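Below is how a single chain appears once it has passed through the pipeline. First comes the sequence as given, then the structure the pipeline wrote out for it. We keep one example in the README because the format questions we get most often are answered faster by looking than by reading.
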Amino acid sequence: MSEIERIYAIMNILYQKSIVKNEELEEKFNASSVTIRRDLGKLQKEGLIVRFRGGAMLAKSKLGHEPSLDERECENLQQKRMIGITAANLVEKGDIVALDIGSTTMEIAKALRSHENITVFTSSLPIANIFYNTNVKVYLVGGLLKQKELCLGGPIARSVIRQYHFDKFFLGAAGIDQNGSITDFDIDEVETKKVFIERSEKVILAADSGKMGKTSFIEVASYPAVCTLITDGEANFPMRKKLQERGMEVIIADAFRKSPHK
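Resulting structure:
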């Protein structure tokens, strides 16, 4: 395991437990006390953790923690619904679409229920379930079940994704900064997102205004790999303008937008 992989893994442990002892990390990663102290020192320097004698705890920083799927479903719900309808309007007959995990992409799935002659790939069990009893052809990517997010990941999932090509990939994320850097919390989920991006003709970030200007732990991608952002009208205007100046297409979802497929 490389240093960066070990540091990512340490942060994932802290997101789950909030506090960890050095001895536990030494045993888990088969690493020396010097190595673990060095890793923790780097994380403390970045303001991500607070160290104490023999251990470390997650800092109250801009990263916070990843809310559960249930919690995220309730946040900015109206904005996410508008984004979902706007995103669905970009999908054409015959498209092979990949939908990322997450609460915003769930709203895209709901808006796609009445579409016909499209194929959807996803690693999210809740998203696959949304298409029950519809005419949408759905492929659920196999892999390791992640209980918290109810999604499938790991090397098996990524090997399956690499076998396909997608017309559009609707990406979810924890945040996007003014330079177009898109970030998220979980290293395994980020690796899966990256494979979807590699295999997609067009990548569209669906992110409500609450994600604008936010930075999480791991970079997923940036412009031009992600060419389009769909957000709501409350998104920071100077930031929207800066992203457009960099070349990213920014689409604003509004309450009056209706799906022609309903």
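The mean pLDDT is 89.

See the next section for the split statistics.
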